[in-house]
Each structure stands twice: as C-alpha cells, then as structure tokens.
Design a protein that fits this description.
Number of helices: 1
Protein name: Stress-induced protein KIN2-like
Strand content: under 5%
Distance between the termini: 90 Å
Order of helices and strands: H
Length: about 70
C-alpha cells in the first residue's frame, strides 16, 4: 500500500468514526428530548390534578357540590 492509499484509508477511517460519533450524539440528544417530554407530561398531569383538587375543595367549601 503506497502513501496515497494509506492516507485515503486513514481518511475513510476517520470519516467513519466521526459519523458514528455523530450518530451517538444524536441518539443521546433524542433520548434527552424524549425524557424531557415525558417529564413535562407528568408535570402537566400533576398540575391538572392539583387544579381539579382545588376546584373540588372550593365547591365543597361553598356547598356547590351538593
């Protein structure tokens, strides 16, 4: 293998490694985004439940629940 073939091989290796590293980073970013989405959904559900509980407490306190 001459120098130009070796350089070409090395460049191909570096390119492949960079692509794989990029894919790994994209996977990590995607996983982080999914985790954030799930956390926000849970937070929204908790807020909704608290608001419903507060509304029920007001109804009970004012006698509107009867």
């Amino acid at each position: 293998m001459d120098n130009s073939q070796n350089a070409s091989y090395q460049a191909g290796q570096a390119k492949g490694q960079a692509q794989e590293k990029g894919n790994q980073m994209m996977d990590k970013a995607s996983n982080a985004a999914q985790s954030c989405k799930e956390t926000m959904q849970e937070t929204g559900e908790q807020a909704k439940a608290k608001a419903q509980g507060a509304a029920d407490a007001v109804k009970n306190a004012t006698g509107m629940n009867k």
